[in-house]
Amino acid sequence: MKALVYAGDRKVEISNVELAFDENKDVLVDVLRTGICGTDVGAVAHGRPKLPPGVVLGHEFVGRRNDTGALVVGNPIVSCRSCSVCQSGMTHLCAKRQVLGVHRQGAFAPRVAVPAGNLVEVEHLTHAQAALVDPLATALHAWRLVRRTCQRVAVIGAGAIGLCSVAVLKAAEVSEIYASDVVPERREFAQRLGATAVGVSPEGEFDAVIDAVGTEETRRIAVSILRPGGVAVLVGLHAAEVVLAAGPLIGGERTIQGSFAYTEAEFIEASRMASMLDTSWVREIAFGAAADTLNAMVTGQLGAGNIKVHVCIGE
């Protein structure tokens, strides 16, 4: 079958591949559409995470089970389910985890093989909403890690995870939601999804800050605008390191919290919540344009107004 694969040398291409399938564990899913994630772009551009040449990319997908026809989304994190971390419910942090589109064949292809336990039925969702369950679950997990009552929360970056964070905060009835982004169109979409204020840079102090960008600058900003006792949740992965002043953290008892992906329960919860999403910020392209589009993202040639691109494969 034809699939979008990592070709090496910071490029992707459409290539013929054999479908990897374990009939004792996997279910075949006929893919309808798959979203291009910032992780896909970062992996191709910077090798984080490192991709083996020839791997089929794509983990934000919706499709139909080949055996039953049910509309499903797939949790792309395949864990061992037997280690102490998995047994504690944190399967997303399993040291042996494999991720579709990184360690296993992904969903930029007509079919993908997924363990049966990773599939969730989503007949109540549109295809666009269903393919956003992954970033919505990521946003939900970040908010859950705040672990305190908040009235004023800032979201730095109005990309897919930032916009989903705004939607999660609105659903949680946070009274003041400030969304910052340098791109005007992204700020407009943040307001549509529930932001009560928007701007290029957050102003004032906040109970919590969700950094959905992850550069050195945005991480410093996230910590600098926390009120005493506040928490900054770091979701974005752009920068490998950041240097922060310890004084304000210690003297103000401010907390820095890392956030990675989501638990299995949060993925299921996000699949139920996704019907609330306005998807007007999603751009749809044909499968034949996928390689050129992702390569343009890697080289920075695609405009920042392209918040989320969905590749339509079997629709």
From TrEMBL:
<dbReference type="InterPro" id="IPR013149">
    <property type="entry name" value="ADH-like_C"/>
</dbReference>
<feature type="domain" description="Alcohol dehydrogenase-like C-terminal">
    <location>
        <begin position="160"/>
        <end position="273"/>
    </location>
</feature>
<dbReference type="InterPro" id="IPR050129">
    <property type="entry name" value="Zn_alcohol_dh"/>
</dbReference>
<dbReference type="InterPro" id="IPR002328">
    <property type="entry name" value="ADH_Zn_CS"/>
</dbReference>
<dbReference type="InterPro" id="IPR013154">
    <property type="entry name" value="ADH-like_N"/>
</dbReference>
<dbReference type="Pfam" id="PF00107">
    <property type="entry name" value="ADH_zinc_N"/>
</dbReference>
<keyword id="KW-0560">Oxidoreductase</keyword>
<keyword id="KW-0479">Metal-binding</keyword>
<keyword id="KW-0862">Zinc</keyword>
<dbReference type="InterPro" id="IPR011032">
    <property type="entry name" value="GroES-like_sf"/>
</dbReference>
<dbReference type="Pfam" id="PF08240">
    <property type="entry name" value="ADH_N"/>
</dbReference>
<dbReference type="InterPro" id="IPR036291">
    <property type="entry name" value="NAD(P)-bd_dom_sf"/>
</dbReference>
<comment type="similarity">
    <text>Belongs to the zinc-containing alcohol dehydrogenase family.</text>
</comment>
<protein>
    <submittedName>
        <fullName>Uncharacterized protein</fullName>
    </submittedName>
</protein>
<dbReference type="GO" id="GO:0016491">
    <property type="term" value="F:oxidoreductase activity"/>
</dbReference>
<dbReference type="GO" id="GO:0008270">
    <property type="term" value="F:zinc ion binding"/>
</dbReference>
<feature type="domain" description="Alcohol dehydrogenase-like N-terminal">
    <location>
        <begin position="24"/>
        <end position="122"/>
    </location>
</feature>
